[in-house]
Write a structure and sequence with these properties.
The protein is α+β, with helices and mostly antiparallel strands. It contains one helix and four strands. The strands form two sheets. It has a two-stranded antiparallel ribbon with strand order 1-4.
């Protein structure tokens, strides 16, 4: 293989490896938790809203909730 072909291959490999790192970077997150009342008991079917956004969820019967794709 000529030097020019090897250098082109190395350059393309560098670009692919660099692009993989950027693609793996997260652009959104997840919020999760459990809703409880003052007595520590789980609150089922509670509405959870991320203030100032359209993101929200409802807790399950055990008070657990999660909201996916929340921007940073």
């Amino acid at each position: 293989m000529s030097l020019r072909v090897r250098m082109l291959f190395a350059f393309l490999l560098f670009l692919v490896a660099g692009g993989a790192g950027a693609a793996a970077a997260q652009t959104a997150g997840k919020i999760q938790g459990t809703v409880t009342g003052p007595d520590g008991q789980a609150l089922g079917r509670a509405q959870i809203l991320v203030e100032g956004t359209a993101f929200g969820a409802a807790s399950d019967d055990k008070g657990y909730y999660f909201i996916n794709n929340v921007p940073p």
